[in-house]
Amino acid sequence: MENPYKRKKEPEVSKQLILAAAAEIGALDWHRVTFQAIADKTGLSKGGIIHHFRNKEDLLKELMNQSLAELTEWIVEEKKSSGKEVGSLAYLRFIINKSNDLFYRRTMKIITQVILINAEYRKGWDEWFSTHIGNGDDGGQGIKHLIVMLVADGLWYSDNLGVYDISDKKKQQILETLIKL
């Protein structure tokens, strides 16, 4: 006879639940993320959380890796669909189109906090960015590319730091204007 109280093990579901809870708790202040806070939010045990992530640093790395993997996938698809290799426009489209995605926003708020205060993560972000977006030094289009990157970064920081309240319509107008460059 099967024990009705035995919990079904769903490791990937638990892992995603932990990541979502960490993103929600840490969106305003990464220092508030503790295994106890995650356990309280998810109903999982601290031991269950530690099974997936040995420490807070491992959890942060997974959130960062997951976000960068999603961003990379989106940019690759955008480049394919537009037939252009200009990563800055794909990056800008991603920033605009994902700005209303709650999990993305929470995760990117954490990344924003961490890259602002942690040189190791800032270096990793810079490496990822140079590889997938570029650095604005691509010949005659360099300055246009750099302008688009800086606008995308400005929108990204604005969304994640809550500095300006820019409507979706205004964001689309910005994109359309920059495409004409």
Automatic annotation (TrEMBL):
Keywords: DNA-binding. InterPro entries: Homeodomain-like_sf (IPR009057), HTH_TetR (IPR001647), Tet_transcr_reg_TetR-rel_C_sf (IPR036271), TetR_CgmR_C (IPR041479). PROSITE patterns: HTH_TETR_2. SUPFAM superfamilies: Homeodomain-like, Tetracyclin repressor-like, C-terminal domain. Gene3D superfamilies: Tetracycline Repressor, domain 2 (1.10.357.10). It holds the Pfam family TetR_C_28. Residues 34-53 bind DNA. Residues 11-71 form the HTH tetR-type domain. One of its GO terms (molecular function) is DNA binding. This is HTH tetR-type domain-containing protein. The lineage of its organism: Bacteria, Pseudomonadati, Bacteroidota, Sphingobacteriia, Sphingobacteriales.
